[in-house]
Amino acid sequence: MIYIQRKERFSAAHQLYNPQWDEAKNDEVFGKCANKNFHGHNFTLTVTVKGEINPDTGFVMNLVDLKHIIKEHIIEAVDHKNLNHDVPFMKGKFTSTEVLAMEFWKILQPLVRDFGAHMHCVRLDETENNSVEYYGD
Amino acid sequence: MIYIQRKERFSAAHQLYNPQWDEAKNDEVFGKCANKNFHGHNFTLTVTVKGEINPDTGFVMNLVDLKHIIKEHIIEAVDHKNLNHDVPFMKGKFTSTEVLAMEFWKILQPLVRDFGAHMHCVRLDETENNSVEYYGD
Amino acid sequence: MIYIQRKERFSAAHQLYNPQWDEAKNDEVFGKCANKNFHGHNFTLTVTVKGEINPDTGFVMNLVDLKHIIKEHIIEAVDHKNLNHDVPFMKGKFTSTEVLAMEFWKILQPLVRDFGAHMHCVRLDETENNSVEYYGD
Amino acid sequence: MIYIQRKERFSAAHQLYNPQWDEAKNDEVFGKCANKNFHGHNFTLTVTVKGEINPDTGFVMNLVDLKHIIKEHIIEAVDHKNLNHDVPFMKGKFTSTEVLAMEFWKILQPLVRDFGAHMHCVRLDETENNSVEYYGD
Amino acid sequence: MIYIQRKERFSAAHQLYNPQWDEAKNDEVFGKCANKNFHGHNFTLTVTVKGEINPDTGFVMNLVDLKHIIKEHIIEAVDHKNLNHDVPFMKGKFTSTEVLAMEFWKILQPLVRDFGAHMHCVRLDETENNSVEYYGD
Amino acid sequence: MIYIQRKERFSAAHQLYNPQWDEAKNDEVFGKCANKNFHGHNFTLTVTVKGEINPDTGFVMNLVDLKHIIKEHIIEAVDHKNLNHDVPFMKGKFTSTEVLAMEFWKILQPLVRDFGAHMHCVRLDETENNSVEYYGD
User: Fold this and answer.
1) E 9-38 residues inside an 8 A Cβ radius of F
2) Sign of the CA dihedral F20, F23, F29, F32?
C-alpha cells in the first residue's frame, strides 16, 4: 500500500452563519466570519489516494488523472464562486472547512475507485494557519 | 539608507467589474473575477520602509510600530470584509490589487513619516502566483 | 471523526546539554547545539484536534478558541524566551523538540477536552528541515 | 513513541516509460513525462523515524545522524543524476515517485535501526503539487 | 507606474557544459551540473510587467493575458523538456539560469508591449536557494 | 548586467538592548526582544550579486563559489551562535537585522569582487514577516 497526493487551489467567498440563529448569536459564535457581505480565501485542497503499485506503470494511479478528476468535479464548482450561493452541493450546508472536506470526499470517492485506487484523506487549508483533514467514516 | 519589511495578511471577498459596462462586457473582460456573488482571497501585504539607522536602537524604525500601523489602519479595515461594500476608502473604486496597493500607500505614507522613515514599496499578493508592487509616484 | 489544525509560531533561544556530562561529552553528543551561550530558532507549532462536527456550527471546535488556548498557554510562555531558563514547565528538562512537543501536549490536552474535542497531534518544526510529531501515549 | 522528521533535497533528471511498450503507448500513458530526452525535478525527501525518547539526550535519535544517513546513502546517489541511467539501485525499475520512495525505504530501514529507531514514513515531493508517502509493508 | 507579477512553473532537464572544453575542464568548472546524462529542476519563472493603470479596468494589464502569454510562448516550449536538446531558442546556448532568463525576456518583451505594458524583470528560480533576475539592457 | 542570488540559513540567539539605557528603558523600546536571557531565530540570508555574463560559462559567477564564500565567511561565524557574545565582528554593535545586514555586506563585498562580480543586495529575514534589505551606500 502506498499513498499519493495531489494539491489544487481555489479562491472563493463564503460566510459562516446558522440561519436558525439571529444576527447577534451568529456574531457571537462566528465572529468576523459571519460578515453578511462575505469574506474569502485562497483554499488549498490536498487529496491523498492509496493503492497498490501497478506493475505496468509504477503508479498507484496516474496523478494526471487525479488532477483532472479534482479539477473537473471540485475546482470547476468552487473556484471564484460564493460557497454559500453558487455551489449546488453546498446548498443548505455550513461552508466550514470541515463540511467542505466531507462533501469533497463524497464526490471524489467513487471517481477515484474507478481508477482502481481508494480515497485516503481530503485536506483543506483555508489560511496558512487553519486546516482540516477528513479520512472518511 | 536601508530597507525594512513587514508582512501582514488578510482574507477578503471582492468582485471585479466596471459599473459602466453591462454584464456581458464585464464577463468578457474580468472573466470569473466578475462573479456577482463575489469570490475571495487570502491577501498578503508587504510594506517596505526606508531610512537611516537610528544610532540609539540599530533600527530604521521599530518593526513592532510598523506592524501596529499596518494592523490598525489597513488590516482592521479589510480583513474578513467585502472590499466592494465594507471598506470606506475603496468606495467607487476598482478592487484590483493595483488600486488596493495604491490606496494602502496613501494611508501608510504619512503614518510612516511620523516615525522618521519613508515608504518605499507596497506589495500585495492576491494568490501565490499573482502580485503587484507600487513604489509611489 | 474529523481533524482540524491550528499553526502558531514562536521564537526562542535554547541549549541542548546533559548536566550530568562534562563539556567535552556534551559537545560530542550535541555538537553546535551545546553552545553554552545559546542559539535559537523560529519554531512552528501545529496542533491537531479531532472530534465530531457540531450540528449547530459545522465546526469540530472553533479554531479561534483553539488559537486562544495555544497562544495563552503555550506561546505566551515560550515566545522570545530562553527555553532553558525562562519557562517554568521546562525546568530540569531537555529542551529538545521531542520533549517540548510532549510537554505542550500535557498542557493542551485538558484545555481542548473542555471544548468537547480531543488532542490528536502536536507537531513542532524547529527549522524547515527538522520536526517532530507526538500523538500521545 | 514519538516521530522525528528530516527533510533533504535533490535535483535529478528522469523519464517515465515502460520498455515493453512502443513509443505511442508510452506517450499515451505517461504523456510528456515520457520525453526520451528526459525532464527533471527538484525532489524533496522527508524521512520520518519513530522511537522512544532516550533519557540521556531527550532525542529519539540525533537528527544530525539521520541527516548524515540520508545524505550519504540516498542524496549522494541521486543528486544531479539521471535516475534512469546513473543510479545502481534504480536499474531496471520505473523511476516514478512511488518506486523511488519504496527503494529509499529499503536502503534506510536497516541504517535507522542501527541507531535504535524505526522507519515510519518516506515522503517524496516531486513538484509542489505531487507527492507520495510510503509507510512500509 | 505600477508593477504586476505572474509566477509560472516548469520542470526540465539540462546539462551545463562548454563544448569547446574537454570533459575534465567541464567537470572542474561545472561540477556535478556537467553530468552528461543530465539532471533537472522544477524552475519557477516570475515575470514582472510595469505600466499605468487602465482607468476602465483598474489593471496595468489583465494577469490572465500575461499568464496566457507566458504559458503559450515559454512554458509550452520548456516544460518536461531537455533544455539542451528540445528547445529551439536555446540551441547552441548555455542553459544556465542567466541565459534562460535573458532568452525569456527577448520572447516576452514584444508580446507584453502589444498589451500596452512594459517588461520590468524576468526572475528564474532553479532551486529554493539559487535564482537570477534580469531587467533588460 | 544580470543579478544572481544565493540563499543560506542560520539559527542564532540574540538580545536587543542599548547598554547606555537602564532595563526599564530597554524594555520600553525593545519589548520582549530585550529579554536578558536571549531569544533566537532561524535567519535566512539572501545575497544578490550582479555582473556581466562570462561568455565561457554562461554565469555571472558560479553560485557554488558564492555559496562557499557565504558559508565560510558568514554562516560559520553566526550559525548556532549567540550574536551578542560569540561573533567577533558584532562586538559592541546592535544585533538588529539592519546592522547584521550591513556587517555581512562589508565582509562579502571584497570577496565577491575577487570573482569579477559586484555586491547588489544583502537581505536578511528574521521571521517570515520581518526582513531587511541593504544595497550598500
Assistant:
1) 16, 18, 29-31
2) positive
Predicted pLDDT of residue F109: 98
Low-confidence ranges of chain C (pLDDT < 70): none
Q: Across-strand partners of A119?
A: A49
C-alpha separations of E10 from B127, E75, F31 in Å: 18, 6, 45
- Per run of 10 residues, the mean pLDDT along chain E (length 137 residues) is 98 98 97 98 98 97 98 98 98 98 98 97 98 96
Q: Do C132 and D59 touch (CB under 8 A)?
A: no
Q: Is D7 on the interface with E (CB under 8 A)?
A: no
Among candidates F40, F81, F85 on the partner chain, residue whose Cβ is nearest the Cβ of C11: F40
Residue A27 CB coordination number (10 Å)? 16
* pLDDT tens string B38-81: 999 999 999 999 999 999 999 999 999 999 999 999 999 999 99
Pairing of strands E81-82, E2-14: parallel
Distance from CA of A135 to the nearest CA of C (A): 7
- Partners of B2 on chain F (C-beta within 8 Å) are 98, 101-102, 132-134
Is residue B126 part of the annotated active site? The answer reads: yes
How far apart CA A84 and CA B38 sit, in angstroms, is 11
Helix (H, G, I), strand (E, B) or coil at B12: strand
Ranges of chain A with pLDDT below 50: none
D74-113 burial code (b ≥16 CB/10 A, e <16): bbebbbbbbbbbbbeebeeebbbbbbbbbbbbeebeebbe
- Cα separation, D47 vs F127, whole angstroms: 25
ipTM of the complex, rounded to two decimals: 0.96
Chains F and C make contact, 3+ CB pairs within 8 Å: yes
pLDDT of residue F42: 98
> Model's pTM, two decimal places?
0.97
CA dihedral B13, B16, B18, B19 (to 10 degrees): -30
Q: Which of D14, D37, D79 is the closest to E86 by Cβ?
A: D37
Q: Of the listed E33, E41, E73, E133, which one is catalytic?
A: E33
pLDDT of residue F29: 97
Domains, chain A, ordered by start: 2-10+41-134 (3.30.479.10)
D:E CB pairs within 8 Å = 77
Low-confidence ranges of chain D (pLDDT < 50): none
Strands (DSSP E) contained in chain F are: 2-14, 39-51, 81-82, 118-125, 130-134
Task: Say if E123 is an interface residue toward chain B (CB within 8 Å).
Answer: no
pLDDT at D13: 98
Q: Is F85 a catalytic residue?
A: no
- Chain D residues whose CB is inside 8 A of the A63 CB are 130
pLDDT at B31: 97
What is the tens place of the pLDDT at every residue in D7-22?
999 999 999 999 999 9
Which chains does C contact via 3+ CB–CB distances below 8 A? A, D, F
B31: part of which helix (H) or strand (E)? none
Record: contact D35-E11, CB cut-off 8 A: no
